[in-house]
Specification:
Helix content is about 25%, strand content about 40%. Strands 1, 2, 3, 4, 6, 7, 8, 9 and 10 form a nine-stranded antiparallel sheet that branches. It has a two-stranded antiparallel ribbon with strand order 5-11. Strand 6 and strand 7 form a beta hairpin. It is globular. The two termini are about 20 Å apart.
Length: about 180
Amino acid sequence: MRAFYFDNIPGDQRLLHDSGNPVSDDILKSIGLLYWHISTNQHNHIDTVAKERNYKNRDTITITKQGLGDLYEAKLKSFYEEHMHEDEEIRYILEGSGFFDVREHPTDSWIRCQLDAGDLLVLPAGIYHRFTLDENNMIKALRLFKDEPKWTPINRGDLTDVNPYRVDYLKSIAVN
């Protein structure tokens, strides 16, 4: 994974949008992001991480234009809406590539995380983020869950700032 500040230049969200300013591991850690690179032929390491972090369920998602058909553009647009979840978001990239953009706190700057096969990213509950494919327009990812599989985005707004999971997230990174 490579992380850098998003350039905020209007245009296709699937472009790199690299500002030229890299983001250090310390900054990622300070906002609660966890990251591993695990070769895709070493799935036993995924099982180890899953056990250590108490992930009980998993599924696989593939995002392609061919697979989503007429829904493709609408789905990409919805993934790119700034949102948070009340659960960790865990993605292990099996094939393809894409970007998770996360909000740095307290600056509110976008940090772009470029993910490729073998990258495992954990976004904490309550962090504002968005996702998009890159120009390759394909990703296959293993999704891990602590409980029953769910993916409920809560789009950013006045109510999300007082959401208990958002408040807990902000308290957790204030300690860091």
